[in-house]
Every structure is written in structure tokens, then in C-alpha cells.
Task: structure prediction
Amino acid sequence: MAEQPTDRIESAAPTAASSFQELGLTETMLSALKAVAYESPTPVQGGIIPRALAGADVLGQARTGTGKTAAFSIPILEKLDQPARGHQPRALVLVPTRELAVQVRDEMERLAYGRKLRVTAVYGGKPLRTQIARLQKGADVVIGTPGRILDHLGRNTLQLQELEIVVLDEADRMLDIGFRPDIEKILRRCPQSRQTLLLSATVAPPVERLAKRYMRDPEVMDFSPKGKTVDTIEQRYFTVDDPRKFDLLVQLLKREQPQQAIIFCRTKRGTDKVHRKLSQKIEGIDCIHGDMAQNVRDRVMKNFRAGQTRILVATDVVGRGIDVSSISHIINYDMPQSSDDYVHRVGRTGRMGREGIAFTFVTPEQGIELTRIEMLINKLLARDEIPGFIAVEKVAPPQAPPSGPAYPAGSAPAETTAAKPAAPPPPPPPGKRMPRRHRRAL
Result:
């Protein structure tokens, strides 16, 4: 598809709607929404659904937890309406992770209540044979990760000639983890007459270039809050020595008694270690990371969504796209790799306007990393402490020098006999300010 001639994609004003009836949905869809207890559309849904139903290409910018999945699922189900006579899919949804593929499939199946549309998910870690059998039976909507979609295309077990709608969900995340070549290969094999919906937390230059090249006059709708995180999420930090982090974690969980919590660790080994030690002290603990078999990861997420697991220890494999509305607490046991990862970790709580709280453990050496996060979100995190718990070992004050001379009389070096205080720094040149300090002491 030809690249758009403009240098910049202009943003359109989102449409506000107070009820799903205002969006012109069918009675079948309204019944499905009532069955899943969706009472009124979120701003993302109220803005995207009418334009998607009208056939426009839409680039929606919104953070996770704002109802994006339903925003593209509802138009897909309404436009497809009835199952096709053939076996080839008419809608394709690309997602960055296996967990998100399962989540989108489950949500779309719930919203397909009262219809006979066939929805299937294909992703790595599951047998190809099973997925091929499902595709051969027929699938109106296919949800998958780019790598597994390409695998099926290479085996001719998936055809895209009948596609009417393509969705790129969490597009910025897919580009961040290196899926751009795979995405472009897939889009080049899709019909040019298709409708394309792109959902992204940010519209960085790579996302914009992708939209300009593979979308037709896309309408950009920005639903992002002015800040990087929403006001409903309270954010605090603890200064703690690394060896004392686990003991602090135990004390914090006892104090907070979270309804559901995710504890983020930086490494798979660290995740296993925290999970093993914590499960000896607290019940309802589980863990998830990339080295686990896919069936185990599926079971863990199923139990967590059902509320059977209260605390989940995880790497950033669940940092994006996992929508569990009952998460009340996020604990960054390890600082994230990047400031953007912090935003997406914290975004696991405070879902759909609910309140949430996030704690971050910061070692004395990581003050600059905390500063970067605060500069990104334009907000200072509040320092927290647990009374009676010593999180940082106090350094003994230096001892006073002995009262007598350190050298025999008359033998002290000349430079020690008349020590002078260090000269103050020179004043700045006229018209220039002193450099600003960006970090208070931890």
C-alpha cells in the first residue's frame, strides 16, 4: 500500500458516548454486552467503535486497561456477523505475547455470545498439529503472535486472501521486541482492500512509519492521559539494601494484605527464587516467566484471573496486555530494565478506573534510575518505610582523630600542619544559572 505523502499523521477528536445504544450496535451485541456486565463504553470504546464500524482505518493511542480489546472486538464481530461458508479467516489480530493472544481470544468469545462465529488463537509453545486442525475446521477470526502466524503461512495452513480486517494490538510493544520484519511480511500478504486498526500505548516514530505505510488515511485518536500514569495509581518507593529486599517484601505483604498482587523481578532465576522462598511463608503464591512450558503458563494465568492465585511473581512477560481487573498492588522487587517498563508494570493495577498502589524497591546505588522514572512520569514517588524494619544498614560515623599529634614533634609533613578548607566552587558566569540537582537524597 502506498505510503502517505504527509510527514505527520493528524489526530482526530475522539467521539464521546454515554451508552452502547448510542453506538448503533445490533441487539445481538447489546445482549452479549449485557451478559458480560458491560454497562457503558469507556472513552476508547466510544471513540473507536463508531469509526471502525464505518470502515475507517484507525490508529488508537491508549494505555492498557482502558478497554482496547473490546474496542476492536465489537466492530469485528458486528461486521462479520455470521460465519463464512469457507474456512479462511476474515479477521486477523496480531499481538506481541502468548498470554495476550489467549486473553484476546477469551474476550472475543465472550462478546460473540449469541453468534456462531469461530475464533481461534495460534501462538508458540503449543503443538502445531492441534492449531492446524482448528484452522482446517474453519476460523472467522485468528489471533496470534507474528512468529507463529508466519509459521502457518509458510506451511500453507493459513490463508489471508479473505481478510476484511487486520488489527495490530500493542503495536509499540511488537516493534520493541523485534517483530517489525514479521509484521511487514504478514501485512504484505493481506488484501490491500482490508481495514486496518492499530492500537498502541505510544505513537513513536517507528509506529507512525508503520501506520503511514500500511494504513489508508488513518484516523488517529489519542486517549492517553497527559501524564504517563493515571491519578488512580498511588506510587511509593522503599530504599533498601539488596540483601534485605526479601525480608522487606514479607513485611510489606503482611502490612498491605493485597487483594491480588504482582511482584516483578528482573530475571527468571530471581523470579523462581522469590517464589520458592515466599511460598514457604504465604499461601496463594505462583510464578510465571518465559522458561516455563506454555501449558504451565496458561494454567498459572487461568488461576490468577480466577482469583485462585493471590500473588503472582513474574518477569516482564506479563508486563503488558494482561487485563486482570482485581489487581490491587504492584511490587517492583527489582527495578525494571527501562523507565517505560516501569510505566507498563504499574499499569497492571488501577485497571478500568479502579484504584491501585505500586511499590518500588530501590537500593542506595539505584537513585539515578529512580530519578529517570520520576522524570518520565513527571511525578515524585513518595518514600515509604515500615516502622521497626531496618531497610538500610546505618554506616558508623567516622571516629574523631586522636587528641595528640600523629607524628613526633617537629616531624609532621608540611602539608598536614596547615590544612586549609576546600575552596568553594567559582560562581557561574553572568547570565547563567547554577546547575540544577534533579535528585533528592534517598
Q: What stands out?
A: The radius of gyration is 27 Å. Residues 1-7, 409-421 have pLDDT under 50 and may be disordered. The chain has two domains: 11-222, 233-383.
